[in-house]
């Protein structure tokens, strides 16, 4: 199975072309020179060309579906679903946090991937490799205060490896709360790598309804949150209508 | 058999996700429009992040529907076209991203289209265009007088200094307790009332072709608040009629002034506010008198609002000129048409 994996969840952009478990080509850019919108498709084009493949040769498109930066998620998800939908190929969405956690391949400890969600909040997910090489979810992806996440982890009382570019910059707070239970991924492993994303996506079930596929934002918009304080979500006309 | 030119066009600059298939720049084979109005009604206006989220959930379904309704395959397409600005950046990005992927995946050239050019070329579905022509573009985001000297050659000769006309409608609509978007209901109320408040016609007497609607909006709001403080109730229909009279007077006068400076055979009234009955009536009456030989083209309702068919019509002109973009194409939220060079 030939597979294209793409991740623009945060600042870094990573794209990989794989054949089954074998990586054919990969690009990871971590210096934001241009918008993801400008560099994602050109990168896909050059990686496919370098792999000797056309877009139509890809059997499965694997996308980091969130959480992350809203605009970044939409660019990768729109790219992946448009490829899959118009070429009639498979689409797989993988948690952006799981993809980060998968960068820590050689540990049996709990791996917690973190992304800064501003104002003291984070997107966090806890994962662990099983003996048969699957990445299992220990703490489902969530949006909450960093201090709360750390309290939840402290309660588990086990060694924890923190990963993700933002986790490294939160090191002080993490160590303060967890002390010697906290370990950190090295800065290279902490970057999102589309090959790790692809490896997870290769063994996941494809999306049944590609059209309906959307990013996992894990957070409502501010406008909706405010509106829901005084309104009911039920019994409304469809929010979007074909006219 | 002559080969068909088939353009798959995308529009997602604001709160409509639209995909269309256009044949030879003049025939609409499909024009799927998914409108988010019911969603943004909750907030009294378009919330950009909500709009972007809806676009992602709609985009591939709209492509499927447009292709199916047009009964064409990707192999038969000539090119892909997309609005890349002006508009909301998060919204634009969905159409731009999807269009780029379709172009690359299906080996098609990609045509970037200015949204305003699209609004103007909606008129191409009414009849062939005769150049040079003049266009009045009025919508929630724009109030512009544009000359089109030849196919695809635009120059802005008049622009709003502050609010767009459609924006002013929405703002005073809120004061009248009308839910977003307010244009249609204000128009209907205006027809029930009289112009009794004599609101200011900003810049009407000035020599340029520019507009300003923020003073009118303030005058309207002050009038209503002042009456509220005195415990008076004003006739809402008269308020609507007075507001609409001020807007349509200025739009009409500036258009007449533009026609005096730029002799043309056709005037295109484009954009969402082109559907306004009050504007249509006043403009047609004024032109029948001052410029009986100028043909006024107002596209049908479905084509005056945001839609991808108009983008396909504009793209037909760009295709002939060989104006293409590559995979680096990005959304340009502040994109404008060229300004007329200083006289
Ligand atoms: Zn528009």
From TrEMBL, chain A:
Domain (Gcp-like): residue spans on this chain: 33-227
EC number annotated for this UniProt entry: 2.3.1.234
Ranges annotated as spanning the membrane: none
GO molecular function, one term: tRNA N(6)-L-threonylcarbamoyladenine synthase activity
Entries under Pfam families matching the protein: TsaD (PF00814)
InterPro entries per record: ATPase_NBD, Gcp-like_dom, T6A_TsaB
Enzyme class at the top of the EC tree: transferase
Keywords for the protein's UniProt record, in alphabetical order: Acyltransferase, Transferase
Name assigned to this protein: tRNA (Adenosine(37)-N6)-threonylcarbamoyltransferase complex dimerization subunit type 1 TsaB
Organism: Lacticaseibacillus yichunensis
UniProtKB/TrEMBL annotation, chain B:
Gene that encodes the chain: tsaD
Localization per record: Cytoplasm
Broad EC category: transferase
Catalytic function, reaction form: L-threonylcarbamoyladenylate + adenosine(37) in tRNA = N(6)-L-threonylcarbamoyladenosine(37) in tRNA + AMP + H(+)
UniProt organism field: Lacticaseibacillus yichunensis
Cofactor binding remark: Binds 1 Fe(2+) ion per subunit.
EC number: 2.3.1.234
Binding, Fe cation: 115, 119, 306
Family per similarity comment: Belongs to the KAE1 / TsaD family.
Gene3D superfamilies listed in its UniProt record: 3.30.420.40
Domain Gcp-like stretches: 27-312
Function: Required for the formation of a threonylcarbamoyl group on adenosine at position 37 (t(6)A37) in tRNAs that read codons beginning with adenine. Is involved in the transfer of the threonylcarbamoyl moiety of threonylcarbamoyl-AMP (TC-AMP) to the N6 group of A37, together with TsaE and TsaB. TsaD likely plays a direct catalytic role in this reaction.
Major site of localization recorded for this protein: cytoplasm
GO molecular function, one term: tRNA N(6)-L-threonylcarbamoyladenine synthase activity
Keyword flag Lipid metabolism: no
Cofactor: Fe(2+)
Presence of keyword Lipid biosynthesis: no
Domain of life: Bacteria
Protein name: tRNA N6-adenosine threonylcarbamoyltransferase
Keywords attached to this entry: Acyltransferase, Cytoplasm, Iron, Metal-binding, Transferase, tRNA processing
Residues annotated to bind substrate: 137-141, 170, 183, 187, 276
Pfam families found in the cross-reference section: TsaD
């Amino acid at each position: 199975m030939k597979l294209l994996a793409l991740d623009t969840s945060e600042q870094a952009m990573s794209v990989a072309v794989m054949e089954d478990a074998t990586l054919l080509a990969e690009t990871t850019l971590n210096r934001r020179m241009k918008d993801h919108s400008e560099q994602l498709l050109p990168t896909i084009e050059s990686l496919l060309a370098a792999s000797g493949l056309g877009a139509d040769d890809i059997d499965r498109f694997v996308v980091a579906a969130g959480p992350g930066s809203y605009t970044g998620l939409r660019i990768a998800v729109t790219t992946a679903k448009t490829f899959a939908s118009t070429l009639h190929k498979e689409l797989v969405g993988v948690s952006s946090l799981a993809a980060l956690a998968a960068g820590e391949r050689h540990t049996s400890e709990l791996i917690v991937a973190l992304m800064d969600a501003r104002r003291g909040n984070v997107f966090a997910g806890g994962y662990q490799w099983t003996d048969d090489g699957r990445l299992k979810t220990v703490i489902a992806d969530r949006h909450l205060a960093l201090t709360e996440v750390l309290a939840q982890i402290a309660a588990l009382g086990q060694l924890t490896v923190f990963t993700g570019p933002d986790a490294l910059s939160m090191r002080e707070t993490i160590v303060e709360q967890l002390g010697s239970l906290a370990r950190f991924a090295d800065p290279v492993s902490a970057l999102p790598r589309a090959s790790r994303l692809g490896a997870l996506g290769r063994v996941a079930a494809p999306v049944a309804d590609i059209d309906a596929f959307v990013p996992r934002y894990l957070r409502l918009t501010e406008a909706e949150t405010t509106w829901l304080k005084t309104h009911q979500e039920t019994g409304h006309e469809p929010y979007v209508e074909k006219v | 058999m002559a080969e068909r030119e088939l353009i798959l066009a995308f529009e997602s600059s604001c709160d409509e996700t639209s995909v269309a298939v256009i044949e030879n720049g003049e025939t609409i084979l499909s024009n799927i429009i998914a409108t988010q109005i019911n969603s943004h009604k909750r907030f009294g206006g378009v919330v950009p992040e909500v709009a972007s989220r809806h676009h992602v959930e709609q985009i591939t379904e709209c492509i499927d529907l447009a292709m199916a309704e047009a009964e064409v395959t990707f192999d038969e397409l000539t090119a892909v076209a997309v609005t890349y600005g002006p508009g909301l950046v998060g919204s634009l990005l969905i159409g731009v991203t999807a269009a780029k992927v379709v172009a690359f995946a299906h080996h098609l050239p990609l045509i970037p289209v200015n949204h305003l050019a699209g609004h103007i070329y909606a008129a191409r579905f009414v009849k062939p265009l005769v150049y040079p022509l003049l266009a009045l573009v009025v919508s929630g985001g724009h109030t512009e007088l544009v000359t089109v000297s030849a196919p695809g050659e635009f120059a802005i000769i008049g622009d709003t200094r502050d609010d767009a006309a459609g924006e002013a409608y929405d703002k005073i609509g809120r004061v009248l307790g009308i839910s977003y978007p307010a244009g249609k209901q204000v128009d209907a109320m205006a027809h029930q009332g009289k112009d009794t408040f004599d609101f200011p016609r900003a810049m009407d007497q000035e020599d340029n072709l520019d507009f300003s609607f923020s003073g009118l909006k303030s005058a309207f709001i002050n009038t209503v608040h002042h009456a509220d403080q005195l415990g008076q109730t004003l006739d809402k229909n008269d308020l609507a009629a007075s507001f609409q009279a001020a807007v349509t007077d200025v739009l009409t006068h500036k258009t007449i002034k533009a026609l005096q400076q730029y002799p043309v055979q056709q005037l295109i009234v484009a954009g969402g506010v082109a559907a306004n009955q009050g504007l249509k009536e006043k403009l047609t009456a004024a032109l029948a008198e001052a410029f009986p030989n100028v043909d006024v083209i107002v596209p049908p309702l479905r084509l005056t609002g945001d839609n991808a068919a108009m983008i396909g019509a504009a793209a037909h002109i760009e295709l002939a000129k060989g104006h293409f973009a590559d995979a680096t194409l990005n959304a340009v939220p502040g994109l404008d048409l060229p300004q007329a060079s200083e006289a």
